[in-house]
Amino acid sequence: MNCMGNMKYLKNNLFPVWKRFFDVQSKKKQQLRWIEPGGFKTNVSVYNSVTKCKVPLILKNENSCTWYMCGPTVYDSAHIGHACTYVKFDIIQRILTEYFNIHPIVIMSITDIDDKIIKRSIESGKSWKELTRFYEEEFFEDMQSLNVSKPYMFCRVSEYIPHIIKFVDNIVSKDGAYVTKDGSVYFDTAKWHTYGKLNKPMPNESHPEKKSSLDFALWKAVKAGEPSWESPWGHGRPGWHIECSTIASTIFGNTIDIHSGGIDLAFPHHENEEAQSCCHYDIEQWVNYWLHSGHLHLHGDTKMSKSLKNTVSIRELFNKYTANQFRMFCLLSHYRNGVEFSDITMQIAVSTLKKFESFISDCDNFVADKLCTGDIDESLLLQCLSETKHRVQSAVADDFNTPSAIHELLNLISLGNKMLHLPKDPSKSHSKSSIAVVSNYIIFVLLKFGISYSVKSDANDHKLKSVIEELVNFRSSVRIRALEQGVKDKVLLTACDTVRKNLLIHGIEVKDYKKTSTWNILREVKMMEN
């Protein structure tokens, strides 16, 4: 096509689209706003995706919040990008419950009918139901292994088809959507005055069936060989966005406190959900607070995505790391920020978790009088603890700032470690209660974030600990005897070091001091491979 031909094409096809778009957008500019909801004020501030700043979290009901979460499209295994999103929102839900006595009622969708599902079904020779049920069960198992709290309810799209048809029909009756010749239904974005709340939409090339390239499918006309359902517009299936709107509205009604998902869903998915739901209910605001998590990246700016075929499955993650280590990885970055997954960033998480575990172990041994060191300034330690509690509370209340909270905890254990490893002053009385209080607080906070340090205690476990105790005591006696010789017995000391290293491989950490040794069963055994 020559230059004149290009200009003619642009004039006839794209220029009208852009002119219409900017005319509509100029009228909408002053109308896009966030409406502060009425209800119960909390002590939490959250980032608002509409105002682009932090605002107070106000809930419809005291001590509870309605929360809708976009769930998986079950045509393949979930990857660690998904895991990062679900773990981060699980942490937020735990913070609301544990710190602010707010109990989220979480509904999660399961998309079990979709273009990708149909394609994979054809490729695999399995029915779409057989395919989706397999990956659905796998997803549930993955979430359990990550210690992600189970939502109040999982909702399959295929079980809400009658509700979806009724929802679409209502929008059509309000003249908010139009039906095309093939029986598809599109939302008319030009007629919705607040379209573009979450992200400024940009038109692309026009579609022959659409009034605007921004218009999106509420109902898709059936194609040969695809699963379909009967509707007023002919056989077909739901569009992607209408599925979430219908499920969330069926359960929560015309207002939702919180709606969450990855930042990639802000537009078009969440924008379209908001527009069609507001049109359906004749309201200005359907969701009061949108929470979006940042992307998980590989190698700098490469987003992890099934379409890019660069994913690491959740089960592959567990070949090298534990759920607690991955959760610490998530805690060390703000939920809204993108984060790079690599051996380096995971090693930071592993090392951070190890610092906590080592400190807790030293505290236990100090209280049990198994440490030969320790000079505790009780007043200073308890003052630091009080300040840490206040700062952690402030951090989680400030848009769930977990990196800041972890930083405060590390500062506290740094002070505690210094005191634990100072030489004992025989002239002083050594109170152990302050160390126990600090250790208990650290465990308590990590539990609130979903990191568990509990160890099952049964008869067999008790016997195992007794055996370990005898072994470590025997080794300690040999080591002390080897050190007391006029010339150190290098053969015995090497043998003691070998035992210590071999025990560590099996998750038993032995620490040597001048005339004593302590031991601890590590809760996190999987470490970085050298």
Automatic annotation (TrEMBL):
<dbReference type="GO" id="GO:0004817">
    <property type="term" value="F:cysteine-tRNA ligase activity"/>
</dbReference>
<keyword id="KW-0862">Zinc</keyword>
<feature type="domain" description="tRNA synthetases class I catalytic">
    <location>
        <begin position="61"/>
        <end position="349"/>
    </location>
</feature>
<dbReference type="InterPro" id="IPR009080">
    <property type="entry name" value="tRNAsynth_Ia_anticodon-bd"/>
</dbReference>
<keyword id="KW-0436">Ligase</keyword>
<dbReference type="InterPro" id="IPR015803">
    <property type="entry name" value="Cys-tRNA-ligase"/>
</dbReference>
<keyword id="KW-0547">Nucleotide-binding</keyword>
<dbReference type="GO" id="GO:0006423">
    <property type="term" value="P:cysteinyl-tRNA aminoacylation"/>
</dbReference>
<dbReference type="GO" id="GO:0005737">
    <property type="term" value="C:cytoplasm"/>
</dbReference>
<keyword id="KW-0067">ATP-binding</keyword>
<dbReference type="Pfam" id="PF01406">
    <property type="entry name" value="tRNA-synt_1e"/>
</dbReference>
<dbReference type="InterPro" id="IPR024909">
    <property type="entry name" value="Cys-tRNA/MSH_ligase"/>
</dbReference>
<comment type="function">
    <text>Mitochondrial cysteine-specific aminoacyl-tRNA synthetase that catalyzes the ATP-dependent ligation of cysteine to tRNA(Cys).</text>
</comment>
<keyword id="KW-0648">Protein biosynthesis</keyword>
<protein>
    <recommendedName>
        <fullName>cysteine--tRNA ligase</fullName>
        <ecNumber>6.1.1.16</ecNumber>
    </recommendedName>
</protein>
<comment type="similarity">
    <text>Belongs to the class-I aminoacyl-tRNA synthetase family.</text>
</comment>
<comment type="function">
    <text>In addition to its role as an aminoacyl-tRNA synthetase, has also cysteine persulfide synthase activity. Produces reactive persulfide species such as cysteine persulfide (CysSSH) from substrate cysteine and mediate direct incorporation of CysSSH into proteins during translations, resulting in protein persulfides and polysulfides. CysSSHs behave as potent antioxidants and cellular protectants.</text>
</comment>
<dbReference type="InterPro" id="IPR032678">
    <property type="entry name" value="tRNA-synt_1_cat_dom"/>
</dbReference>
<dbReference type="InterPro" id="IPR014729">
    <property type="entry name" value="Rossmann-like_a/b/a_fold"/>
</dbReference>
<keyword id="KW-0030">Aminoacyl-tRNA synthetase</keyword>
<keyword id="KW-0479">Metal-binding</keyword>
<dbReference type="GO" id="GO:0005524">
    <property type="term" value="F:ATP binding"/>
</dbReference>
<dbReference type="GO" id="GO:0046872">
    <property type="term" value="F:metal ion binding"/>
</dbReference>
